[in-house]
Amino acid sequence: MEKLAMTRTIVRGGTIVTPEGTFSGDVVIEGEKIAEVTEKAESRPDDTVIEAEGLLVLPGIVDAHTHIMLDTGIYKTADNWLVGTRTAAAGGVTTVVDFATQFPGQSFREAVENRWAEAQDAIVDYALHCMVTELPIGSEDSLRTLIEMGLPSFKIYTTYRPNYYMDDATILRLMRKAVEIGGLVIVHAENDAMVTEATEHLVNTGRTGWQYHPLSRPPEAEQEAVNRILFLARLADAPVYIVHCTTGLSVELVRNARQAGQPAWCETCPQYLLLDDRVYRSEHPEHYILQPPIRPAGEPEKLWKLVSEGAVSLISTDSCDYTLEQKREFTEFTKTPGGLPGIETLLPLVYTYGVDKGRMDLTDMVRLLCENPARLFGLAPRKGFLKPGSDADLVLYDPGVEKEIHHEDLHYLAGYSPYEGMGVKGEVRMTFSRGEVIYRDGEILGTAGRGQFVPGKPFSVDVMET
Asked: In a 3-state reduction of DSSP, which class is residue 394?
């Protein structure tokens, strides 16, 4: 029987952006894969041609730090996987890397299988880190289950006692095993004792309003923990990745370690690049309760400088979508759920305040938002790349549009945006996921359940050296 020809789509005449450079050209899609990236593709009579002149053609964004349908045991975020990935599609994010949480007494297999079941309505593809909360002595080999299931990144916390907190000895045991089996340890770094004492001091002196939140988690708590984690990783000879760095010093510590030969990387997030602690003196300080908090004026520019210098390996969102009703249920910062929505606004914010402001070029943006997250978390070259054989995940971005961010225009359930009223240049015109147009000109076209789990490959330091 004659094999039927695979349907082809040609994205024609856009500005193609990769970390190696930009050029005007065509992307040929066959089925779910990129078949060709070239200056001029030969078309066939039955090809679907999408004209992209004047548009940027980017790899689909990989948001490596999201919290969709998060259950902390105390709070649950408002978004389910359908809603959370709708916002991703609208923002040009074609892969989210979320978390499977190991709840008390739960095996790693149970944690992952539960998360797979919860994510069955996803519109975009997803990968997972595992939040490791328990690792009794002698159980270290159980981490191999995560590698086998496609979760090569293990998240730990140096704070949030007793639910998530992990002590230094356990961290060392985990790091040693991670090196052996191809795992990457990723860390929420805050000194638990400093946070606990600062919080207790504020409570004991009657300062529990939302405006006091940043005082409960001072920059020094993050910086000490980052430094300590780097020493532990050095002792274990383990690669390490620090999430949501909020201060210049935190990033400098990671960069200095890497320059000294240590495999260490870090991320920051738009909220730390664009906001400062004046938000806690604004009309709605509850909007900005998150951990770590927004830092004082001056820190955002330090972070931007370090991003420009290549010290930050990627920008992700740490998106965590609580509603205003949840944020306002209590007036004490100690009881208010922490987190901000952000997946949908990631690309326009980084383009506007990074590329358009001259802090990075387009190739840097693609490296930070696409290739590096795919490399670090075992998804490359299937995700994050515009190259033959990669999944046909593309974003067509119109840089000529100027608009403001308003929560009414976004697709999540929070009812507010931390970036309300901020101007942005450009908008997503079209999002492709594995060759399918899932978003076009304001309309979500992707259907519930089309998203797939993408298993990550075991970690190797070589992925960031090629």
From this structure: strand
| pLDDT over 70 (residue 4) | no
Q: Token pair for residue 319?
A: 């998106």
What one-character DSSP code corresponds to residue 15? E
**Do the beta carbons of residue 372 and residue 62 sit within 8 Å?**
no
What pLDDT sits at residue 5? 55
CB 310 within 8 A of CB 282: no
* Rounded Cα distance, 274 and 381, in Å: 31
- Calculate ∠ Cα 183-186-189, nearest 5°: 150
Q: How confident is the model at residue 301, as a pLDDT?
A: 98
| Domain range annotation of the chain | 8-58+391-400+423-444, 60-380
Are 384 and 373 spatial neighbours (Cβ–Cβ below 8 Å)? yes
The answer to whether the bond into 292 is cis (omega within 30° of 0) is: yes
Per the CB < 8 A criterion, the answer to whether 117 and 447 are in contact is no
For the residues of 318-346, what is the DSSP string, one character each? Answer: -EE---HHHHTS-SBTTTSPP-B--GGGH
What is the pLDDT at residue 3? 43
The residues, any chain, with a CB within 8 Å of residue 270's CB and separated by 6 or more, are 315, 317, 342, 345, 346, 349, 350, 419
Give me the CATH code for the 8-58+391-400+423-444 domain, please.
2.30.40.10
Spatial distance between the Cα atoms of 165 and 192, rounded to a whole number of angstroms: 8
- Please, is 167 exposed, middle or buried when counting C-beta atoms within 10 Å of its C-beta (0-12, 13-18, 19+)? exposed
Q: 60-380 belongs to which CATH class?
A: alpha beta
32 DSSP 8-state letter: T
In this structure, what is the dihedral angle of CA atoms 206, 209, 210, 215, given to the nearest 10 degrees?
-20
Which tens digits make up the pLDDT trace of 361-373? 999 999 999 999 9
77 near 31, Cβ under 8 Å?
A: no
Are 77 and 68 in contact by the 8 Å Cβ rule? The answer is yes
Name the residue among 273, 274, 256 with its Cα closest to residue 265.
Answer: 256
Judged by average pLDDT, the poorest of 5-19, 39-53, 175-189 is 5-19
